[in-house]
Amino acid sequence: MAGLAGMRLGYAVAREDWIQRLTPFASGNSTIAGVNVLAKYAAVAALKEMGNAPAMRKRSTDLRKKTVAELEAWGYEVMPSDANYFMVEIGEDVELMAFEFEKRGVLVGRKFPPYDSWLRVSIGTADEMTQFVKAFKDILPQIKG
């Protein structure tokens, strides 16, 4: 919700045996010493803003629903999501299409095998989501109208 996923900053609270099972999947060093200083400052700033969490959650949910509805109306299948991102089936290799989005100033997620034709889209600001939908409609054909 705070947009820190790219910094690979997070935590897990679980029984010791579950933590041991999760450890092989941790990215980088899974101790606080392994977190870079920028991520630490960003986390502190995000924690100070948690009073705004309900409003941030609502804004993200509303933007996700609006964007998904536009893509579905354009004819595309969207994987159900309650997260800060969704995946849309574009019928093309995601890596190739990512370049087309980048040309239009939109960065999209990487390929998630075996879902090679499912584009991962993170929820941004209202302006960013409008720019994404415009780029999507410029790049991909309408399937049904």
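That was protein one. Protein two is written in the same sequence-then-structure order:
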Amino acid sequence: MTGRDFLTFAKTLHVSADEAARRTSVSRAYYALYHHVREHLISSGIPVTTKPEEHKRMVRYLENSRIEDAKYVGEQMNDVRKKRNNADYELNDSSFNKNTCALYCSMAEALFNQLDSIDKQSLKNGLIQYAKLVNEPYNL
């Protein structure tokens, strides 16, 4: 199971006539991205737990890696997370139509690809430099 599996599933739901399914598509698209970013951080030597605060920490690492594409992925990941929170908690939010949900699935996929296009060694170096700066653990 990988983050991409969640994304594939999310893309089957966003076209549904059922609002709960469309909301779930946004939630799964976010978690697809979350797991993909988490995998990149861990493979770069940055330990990541499953604690709730790790979502913001992962974004902070990307935004401070000194790599513009990673910074952008972090910023957009934060936006997708906010929409996921609305999907799960703001039941009066009427914005979860097919087009909006398709947009968030497409955003997640584009962010996957953008993160994958970053040179792995450069990303690792940027993430470890940030870990050193904030005195957090890392593995070489």
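Helices lie at 3-13, 19-43, 54-63, 68-89, 98-117, 120-133. Keep this in mind for the problem set.
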